[in-house]
Write a structure and sequence with these properties.
The structure holds two protein chains of two kinds. The N and C termini of chain A lie far apart (46 Å). Helices cover 79% and strands 0% of the residues of chain A. In chain A, helix 5 packs antiparallel against helix 8, helix 8 packs antiparallel against helix 11 and helix 10 runs antiparallel to helix 11. By secondary structure, chain B is an alpha+beta fold. Chain B has two domains: 215 residues, P-loop containing nucleotide triphosphate hydrolases (Rossmann fold, 3-Layer(aba) Sandwich), CATH 3.40.50; 118 residues, RNA polymerase II/Efflux pump adaptor protein, barrel-sandwich hybrid domain (OB fold (Dihydrolipoamide Acetyltransferase, E2P)), CATH 2.40.50. Helices cover 25% and strands 36% of the residues of chain B. Chain B has eight helices and 20 strands. Chain B has a six-stranded mixed beta sheet with strand order 6-7-8-3-9-10, sandwiched between helices. In chain B, strands 13-12-11-14-20 form a five-stranded antiparallel beta sheet, with no helix packed on it. In chain B, strand 12 and strand 13 form a beta hairpin. The longest helix of chain B has 18 residues. The chains are: A mainly alpha, B alpha+beta. At the A-B interface, helix 6 and helix 7 of A face helix 2 and strand 6 of B.
Chain lengths: 231, 341
């Protein structure tokens, strides 16, 4: 027990003294997660809206497929993307493997279905009469879409926050596509796994504290956004 | 000027024809009441008139121009016609921004928008709620806001789907007065749907009645659901609204055990003072006068005979009878006063 308490106290010390190694890892993690969330949102929100609102054939099949992809293990996505971006892969010429961009690509694959599925749920809840009202007030197609997105904004924000929470805490993709290179592709989760392997718990616990703090902030934000949606 | 001209317009959903209008003309600057039971096709017709959906077939002429229901054309036409829903949807924002939406997308300047919104809010007596959230308004206030939002756009035509159906009596009067005022001041053509024949009579210049998707030449009153019961010797008793027994004159359908709809023509009902029910007599109902109102050359009487029956009497006949509210009366119907729908 004293071993754990010692590690915990040392971890707090690392956080308080703004340890450079710790903050380098946190910085890489946040950068990669923010970019992948942004890219996935740009793709996932319109995709979800189109599926929910569009009159497309096989809509149920597409939704089922998306929901299945939500349960996809990160290592499977890692393996799948690896096959494409490794030197022997189709996109090998871009030399992406073991870079932050590779992690971003993998994470985008991970959370785009999540954002799309949650956007579908958010948009589907919006009463059809919003669209009818907007049209009868003179809105064109784009303006009508914006009205619906505005009404679904809280649900869509919650989707993006959930997606960020998912990527910041994943390890499989970061490890397989990033390679856990110190100062370059080492993220909070991969660093924690490494420190655990080394039997050095101080940095792992410190990173755990930061990760949990981020999760807490995300959850507070999530509840705040959902609460506003209910007003 | 003719605002709308519909010819052979039909609408189908899943292969079922829900609207079939041979010919309908709506004159501009008038108030029209569109009457009909649930499922009669009122909302479908409104969706076509507001250019929200294209008819399956037929021709629609709007302000002298044939409508081809192309996307660009529809968008332009929708800016001339505004529909106010029975349960109006308010955007999740303030009262001000709800009205501002339509003005903003029309490219109106900020100063002009503010002036128009203030004027519209004054008109519906909601100026005090300018900055309030639209979600906080009551049902009647929401309906008034929906009207303000529509009026701010200065439409040529306003289509109001049951504008007073879900509001209290006070707000009903406010909305009726508002629609009349708007029509008088702006000559905006107003169409509204209603189940209430009396409300329509009080507000509309003309009424149009839909029955199972078709225009019918009745006044949408005295239409009752009924079932038939045998009374022996081949005689059948009709239960008006499944409760008031009435021995109908003339043709009576054979089949029992199913619901019918019957129309009693208010112009052809003969009214006699006095009388009380002793036994069933063919084509005779007894009741008391509940309401009387003058309508041009005629007087409309609502007689409580267990069901509310409307009778239209010429003014001179009314004067001879010297009727008063509460009087007991006998209603006599000949076969030509009854129509099975």
């Amino acid at each position: 027990m004293s071993f754990f308490i010692d590690s915990f106290l040392s971890a707090i010390s690392l956080v308080v003294t703004l340890d450079p190694e710790l903050f380098q890892v946190v910085r890489v993690s946040l950068r990669v997660s923010c970019i992948s969330t942004l890219v996935a949102a740009v793709g996932g929100i319109p995709l979800g809206f189109f599926i929910a609102y569009g009159n497309i054939k096989g809509k149920r099949m597409v939704i089922t497929l998306l929901n299945t992809m939500l349960a996809m293990p990160t290592v499977v996505i890692g393996l799948f993307v690896y096959a494409f971006i490794s030197r022997r892969g189709v996109f090998g010429v871009f030399d992406l493997l073991y870079t932050q961009n590779a992690i971003i690509v993998g994470q985008v694959f991970l959370i785009t279905p999540l954002i799309a599925a949650l956007t579908i749920a958010a948009v589907s809840r919006i009463d059809e009469r919003y669209s009818k009202t907007a049209k009868t007030l003179g809105a064109n197609s784009l303006q009508t879409v914006l009205v619906i997105l505005r009404e679904a904004q809280f649900g869509i924000c919650a989707a993006v926050i959930s997606a960020f929470g998912r990527v910041v805490s994943e390890i499989g993709i970061s490890m397989m596509l990033g390679g856990n290179i110190k100062g370059f592709t080492r993220t909070m989760t991969t660093a924690m796994a490494l420190e655990y392997d080394k039997g050095s718990f101080t940095l792992a616990v410190a990173l755990g504290l930061v990760l949990m703090s981020i999760s807490l902030i995300m959850n507070v934000l999530f509840n705040f956004v959902q609460g506003r949606g209910r007003l | 000027m003719i605002q709308y001209e519909l010819q052979q317009v039909t609408q189908q959903y899943n292969g079922k024809t829900v609207l079939n209008i041979k010919k309908l003309e709506i004159e501009s600057g008038k108030i029209y009441g569109l009457l009909g039971a649930n499922g009669a096709g009122k909302t479908t017709l409104f969706n076509i008139l507001s250019f929200l959906e294209a008819p399956a077939s037929g021709q629609v002429v709007f302000a002298g121009q044939s409508v081809f229901f192309g996307r660009t054309e529809l968008h332009k036409l929708r800016r001339r016609v505004v529909m106010v829903d029975q349960y109006p949807i308010m955007f999740t924002t303030t009262v001000f921004k709800n009205i501002e939406f339509g003005l903003k997308i029309r490219g109106m300047t900020k100063e002009r928008r503010q002036a128009v919104i203030d004027e519209a809010l004054d008109m519906v007596d909601l100026a005090a709620y300018r900055g309030a959230s639209a979600a906080e308004l009551s049902g009647g206030e929401t309906q008034r806001l929906a009207l303000a939002r529509a009026l701010a756009l200065s439409p040529e035509v306003m289509l109001c789907d049951e504008p007073t159906a879900n509001v209290d009596v006070e707000n009903q009067a406010v909305i009726r007065a508002l629609l009349t005022r708007v029509n008088l001041e702006t000559r905006c053509t107003i169409l509204f749907t209603s189940h209430d024949r009396l409300q329509a009579a009080g507000l509309a210049d003309e009424t149009v009645v839909l029955e199972k998707g078709e225009l019918v030449d009745t006044s949408y009153e005295n239409i009752f659901s009924c079932s038939l019961e045998s009374k022996g010797k081949g005689q059948k008793i009709c239960l008006l609204q499944q409760k008031i027994p009435f021995s109908l004159p003339g043709f009576v359908p054979e089949a029992e055990g199913r619901d019918y709809r019957v129309y009693l023509n208010p112009d052809k009902i003969k009214l006699v003072q006095g009388g009380q029910q002793v036994q069933q007599r063919r084509g005779v109902l007894f009741g008391t006068i509940n309401l009387m109102m003058a309508e041009g050359e005629k007087v409309r009487l609502i007689v409580n005979a267990g069901v509310m029956v409307t009778v239209l009497l010429p003014v001179d006949e009314y004067a001879q009878l010297r009727l008063a509210i509460g009087d007991a009366v006998t209603l006599k119907l000949k076969p030509d006063a009854v129509e099975w729908l």
